[in-house]
Backbone:
């Protein structure tokens, strides 16, 4: 499972500008974005340059432990991540959710999709 989040902490004018091609009929068409391209990855990094890399390290450890059902480990890593970004939404969401379950994944954790309820 992959969880995608994207923090824009350092807005930079001109980044992610659309690219167009001119068609034979004189109109223009926007070209698709190759998000995995080196250019896009460099631009994405610019938007997050003020985030301490240690945040991502701890957050990723926490996400892996969360998915694996090791919620004690997930909590520890997420608390370390939170130390670098106290108001990070996904970090706080996961901490609140695992705590609301008393740090124990549901019995169906590895077999069913579990949706966050409003308010976590």
Residues:
């Amino acid at each position: 499972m992959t969880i995608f989040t994207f923090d824009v902490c350092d807005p930079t004018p001109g980044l992610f500008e659309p690219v167009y091609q001119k068609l034979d009929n004189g109109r223009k068409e926007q070209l698709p974005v190759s998000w995995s391209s080196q250019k896009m990855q460099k631009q994405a990094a610019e938007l997050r340059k003020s985030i301490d890399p240690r945040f991502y390290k701890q957050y990723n450890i926490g996400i892996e432990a969360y998915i694996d059902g090791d919620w004690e480990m997930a909590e520890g890593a997420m608390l370390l991540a939170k130390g670098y970004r106290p108001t990070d939404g996904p970090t706080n969401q996961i901490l609140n959710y695992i705590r609301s379950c008393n740090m124990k994944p549901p019995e169906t954790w590895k077999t069913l999709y579990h949706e966050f309820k409003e308010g976590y």
User: Anything to note?
Assistant: Residues 51-120 form one domain. DSSP finds four helices and two strands in the chain. The mean pLDDT is 86.
